[in-house]
Amino acid sequence: MTVIKQEDLIQSVADALQYISYYHPKDFIDAVHEAYQKEESKAAKDAMAQILINSRMCAMGKRPICQDTGIVTVFLTIGMDVKFEGDMSVEDMANEGVRRAYTHPDNVLRASVLADPDGKRANTKDNTPAVIHMKLVPGNTVDVHVAAKGGGSEAKSKFAMLNPSDSVVDWVLEQIPKMGAGWCPPGMLGIGIGGTAEKAMQIAKEALLDPIDIHELQARGASNRSEELRLELFEKVNKLGIGAQGLGGLTTVLDVKVADYPTHAANKPVAIIPNCAATRHTHFVLDGSGPAQLEVPKLEDWPEISWEVGDNVRRVNLDTVTPEDVKDWQPGETILLSGKMLTGRDAAHKRMVDMIAKGEELPVDLKGRFIYYVGPVDPVREEVVGPAGPTTATRMDKFTRTVLEKTGLLGMIGKAERGPMAIEAIKDNEAVYLMAVGGAAYLVSQAIKGAKVVGFEDLGMEAIYEFELEDMPVTVAVDSKGESVHQTGPQEWYQRINAESVG
Description:
With 503 residues, this protein is of the alpha/beta class. The protein is built from 15 helices and 19 strands. It has three domains: 1-149 and 285-304, no CATH class; 151-277, no CATH class; 314-489, fumarase (Alpha-Beta Barrel).
């Protein structure tokens, strides 16, 4: 009989969550670096450079890779010869570990979990509760996988109950373009096939815990149907040309994982869960000897990547930019922003639109200003703001026309593509949408030299801030004429890749 002390599980979960907030798995770093080296699309290569540089900075500074520090999932495989010593349930122990991790004073993690999800949506303040899966097996250890999943990638999960004769490959290839870039490629896809609806989703997520090993599989060849699907989907998804951050390029996925489970004769449940460029998971085993000891990576594990913007980069002062100026900005162009920028995401936009409808005055004048879709991590030590990467812009699409037309807002900054409704509003108002790289939150935060709340303080991380910037890198994603690089880039690279493969 192995005795596991309550405190050992709590502390191990807390340590693991801190660890994965700033350390990428080495297999992920190696895979992104390999994709970076072979990438031919300049925009995609630049995005991967920022991801790699950000990752190294986070490892050195022990600050979050992404401002969205995720909702926690814990998989516990408990040996039947284990006894827990303590007065808490196993779920309560895991949640206490989450609570400690997210409120750690040296590296505060953003609490994103909201209770009453279709009502008050009140933040629980400590990111609890986690989603916890447990199973009992023969043995005398506790095997634990801890993951923190960002909302942007989780939102792109897909599920279908296919007919038994339907093609899984065809369905997946139909879904991937619909997912857009909000899941922050390059990343991994977890595919779950079989069981019931909830089982397919669970095994898809569990599959993402496995290391990136697609090249080893390519070398030895498939030995079962799941491995055949992995190889086929890896090749065909990358041939779609979506590329890093959806900008078009050679690498969209670094690996595809497929897990299956026996299912009913009338069903073929299939789930897709993507993992983003801020992939966060680790594994440890408790054997009664104390809390888990997680191996600290070596700095040599990260490649030395430099990101050069070039001499022809456009530098823009947000304090003096005019509507006439933005008409010259070209799709795909890199811009360095300096000056004062506002922030605001879902809750702030909804409140502003409600106030506009009631004829109420907004707390800030948006005329001629730029707004950044972000919910930053709280600062620690000498920081003016914590990691502050972009959130998925499409969630603001339904507010865009009202805000542009009623306030005179000139530009928006976010992650991934805009939908047709927002693009039309941008075009009609001769505004612009700029893209910051998802998965490079700490790098972005280094360009923020000052921060203060200027509206809706009660919204916490969703309040309206004013940031003082110095050379924040962004890409023109939708120009004032309505041209979107998230449409033109993947189309161009799809044609290139498939022309080469035919040739």
